[in-house]
Amino acid sequence: MEKWGLIAGTGFSDWLSDGQLHQLDTPYGQPSAAVTEAEIGNSQWFYLPRHGNPHRLAPHTVNYRANIWALHSLGVSRIVAVNVVGSIRKQWPSGSLVVPDQIIDYTWGRAHTYFDVIDMGDAPVEHIDFTHPYSLQARQLLLQAGEAAGLHLFDGGCYAATQGPRLESAAEVQRIRRDGGDIIGMTGMPEAALARELGVEYASICLVSNAAAGIDDQELSIAQIMQNVHNGSDAVLAIMQRLAHS
Q1: Is pLDDT at 58 greater than 80 in this prediction?
Q2: Nearest partner of 205 among 124, 112, 100, judged by Cα
Q3: CATH architecture classification, 2-110+131-244
Q4: Buried b (16+ CB within 10 A) or exposed e, 120-146
Q5: pTM of the model
Q6: 46, β-bridge pairs
Q7: Which tens digit of pLDDT belongs to each residue from 218-239?
Q8: C-alpha to C-alpha distance for 197 and 114, rounded to whole angstroms
């Protein structure tokens, strides 16, 4: 039976709440929360709430290394990450679902690799190929699950990972737009790279919660962003259910 990992953040902390809990420690410290294991359909799922349960960890304080290591230690071969994002593209309004195929990292100061000298001793540093940061196969499975659920998913796009926890300025959004970014989130890196270092397939489904700063004339409202996440969570859950039964 295939083992899938699910990492989700804001608005998704109650998923798989009735499964078996794994309280884990790793060489990199404790993950954000206990991992919940549940058998769904034809696969085994291991759910890790990225920001803790209850939600308490800001994006820049998440122990990404421990999270990915914990799932890998449980035998997970594929990870689906659910990310809430702002959209730079006007044709991707709130409620849109995007399966990105590229990423730009604007974060700093995060423990972003397993190949630190202090951790690896005399082991050689591995320079991973990150040309395609998301697993082609895992992305395809997500897109197929969306189609089976009767939902439209945008295929492709560039995820811009910013530091947070504040939202971006309008000038920063324009810079990211010039760089080729399409959606903006705070948690896509270093997750994707860490999974690649451990040989775990990784793909993301992004729920658009708002237009990025300055893209339209609407003032950003955290309350409205959270409401949009709540409104879109059922669609994301439907895709996960289709994925589990495929």
Answers
A1: yes
A2: 100
A3: 3-Layer(aba) Sandwich (3.40)
A4: eeeeeeeeeeeeebbbeebbebbbebb
A5: 0.92
A6: 5, 37
A7: 887 888 888 888 888 889 988 9
A8: 7
